[in-house]
Amino acid sequence: MKTSIVKIVAALFVAIFVLTACAPAAPAATVYHIASDATWPPFEMVDETSKEIVGFDVDLMAAIAEQAGFQYEIVNVSWDALLAGVSQCQYDAAISSISITDERKQSMAFSEPYATAGQIITVGFNDSSITGLDSLAGKRIGVQMATTGDIAAQKVAGAEVKGYDTVDLAFQDLMNGQVDAVIADLAPSANFVLLNPDKIKLVGEQFTDEPLGVAVCKTNTELLGLINQGLAGIQANGKLDELKAKWFGAQ
To answer: Is pTM beyond 0.70 here?
Structure first.
């Protein structure tokens, strides 16, 4: 009798093992790949100590994902690769102070706007010849290529536009006298001026008004919905205003 019971129990253990081994594995949670060009402080930059990407957009995406309940990882890529990657759906989305334009809407989707940006001119500290857009004719203008600052500079009659892969290189050339002015978003421009107050200065007023949004692969409607859901949530609970105060309050 004992032998029979032992055989039955052993057979049950074998059956359970086989069923467990054959059962399908639980599906892995989706991790969205989100591109960012971490050369645009205070929106996104690499912390020199930790070597991690930090900034307003980084904190914003973390808050959106927590609110909407999805997982993601940020991939640091160049600006050109970022735009092409989202257009071709190599990345699920991108957050990098991206202005929402009609041209970009043709190849990628956008979340609801989360902030506004605008272009401004930065010149050498001792330069009194440039006071605004109307005094840029014939000047050498530094811009980050394929940005709205680049688009604005191309419209200046007689100007020599010099494009850079990253905006910090444009400001470096401005301080070295290789260009006469830089056109870029107000926030990063103000940030570079704060770091170099004896070398460069802002002139004139912000001359564009551009909504910023999270760019999303056009076919990824699920992620777009999650991002808008999370964004609406942090707008309602005050988290978005808290992040703006943290990163832009001093400016």
So the answer is: yes
